[in-house]
Amino acid sequence: MKSKLSVFTTLLLIYCVFNTAYAEQFALQQSEGGTLYLRIHTRAVDDAQFLLDTGSSLTLLTPDTFKKLSANEPATEAGYVNARLANGQIKKIKTYRLTAFALSDACAFEDVQVAVMPRANNILGMGLLSKAGSLNISLLPPTLTLEKCDQMHTASTAPLSTH
Q: Looking at the DSSP assignment, which residues form a beta bridge with residue 159?
């Protein structure tokens, strides 16, 4: 009986180690107007600033950021969406699915839908943020905590560092 219990405990421990998502905390930059930004440095994207936008369902990338990400991670076309812009206009935007999107060396998400739009800023929207299960934004100091980050340590997705 003891042997079966120890085998079960060992297998459970191995499962938990390799399949555990965990909370990850990120320092944010805050503009004078209070807007929050996350800056990432990855192997795919040398330096990119992302607006944290809980009012956006889309994660939006500049063409330059998308080109860098899709050079390392396969991207497939996912169609078009009609997006309401901050100025109220509705614009048809092409979307893609990335196999992975890393925010830090310990936090990446699989199968992320992104939209690409010229003359725009990178935006982390709820499409990506909701994959974390829950999130917490603190203002003093500006910090983002994502409760469920997936560990993905591959050469193409693992970031170098975050600021």
A: 42
